[in-house]
Automatic annotation (TrEMBL):
<keyword id="KW-0808">Transferase</keyword>
<dbReference type="InterPro" id="IPR041698">
    <property type="entry name" value="Methyltransf_25"/>
</dbReference>
<dbReference type="GO" id="GO:0008168">
    <property type="term" value="F:methyltransferase activity"/>
</dbReference>
<dbReference type="GO" id="GO:0032259">
    <property type="term" value="P:methylation"/>
</dbReference>
<keyword id="KW-0489">Methyltransferase</keyword>
<dbReference type="Pfam" id="PF13649">
    <property type="entry name" value="Methyltransf_25"/>
</dbReference>
<dbReference type="InterPro" id="IPR029063">
    <property type="entry name" value="SAM-dependent_MTases_sf"/>
</dbReference>
<feature type="domain" description="Methyltransferase">
    <location>
        <begin position="63"/>
        <end position="155"/>
    </location>
</feature>
<protein>
    <submittedName>
        <fullName>Class I SAM-dependent methyltransferase</fullName>
        <ecNumber>2.1.-.-</ecNumber>
    </submittedName>
</protein>
Amino acid sequence: MTTPDPADRVLARASLAEGSPTAWFDQLYTAAARGEAEVPWTRGAPNSDLAAWITPGEGRRALVVGSALGDDAELLASRGWAVTAFDVAPTAVEAARARFPESTVDYVVADLLHPPADWHHAFDLVVEIINIQAMPRDFRPAAIASLAGFLAPGGTAVVSEVAEESTDAEHWEGPPWPFSRAEIESVAQDGVRLVSLETVREGTRYWATFTR
Ligand SMILES: C[S@@+](CC[C@H](N)C(=O)[O-])C[C@H]1O[C@@H](n2cnc3c(N)ncnc32)[C@H](O)[C@@H]1O
């Protein structure tokens, strides 16, 4: 007997077959809210690498990409950042607002592939953790261009994705689709430059920082 595929795989496959790189995220959060599926990336706590790295915001503006249920956004808000957090899945945004009713975070439904124009060069800190890797590679250049565009002069972007060099790339079945070093470095475009690039979690994830 074979084990059935988890709901995220089944939904992702159907969504991608229909040509949508993102529809399955809301379907998964909705199924999870009904107790019919698990969202594999939810931890109920902020990303530990981000928690170890973050510095006080002192009122500066931060943008959290793919904010899911809000844990990373709340971490930044608790460290004094004025946080906007967005996700393409309305159910995730609603859930984050419901989890943190007193929050100062501005939770927004938005698509990294079609972001609001007034986010251009608007954020002192941009946090991208394992979201772009969850979209098929065809969408990566557009997603990375949007990401780079959010960063204000003098700001910092942090980008963390699964490191292709730590995977068996030949037999890998996404999502996610891991990043090569060159792809991580490609965030350095349109006036953005790489500051640091290392691996964390025993070499399995890149942790890269950029500035403009
Ligand atoms: C793999 S999860 C990672 C969530 C969170 N960043 C973390 O570290 O746990 C990817 C998240 O990005 C969201 N997402 C995927 N594509 C997106 C897009 N094009 N624009 C905005 N959010 C997106 C999904 O709904 C999901 O919440």
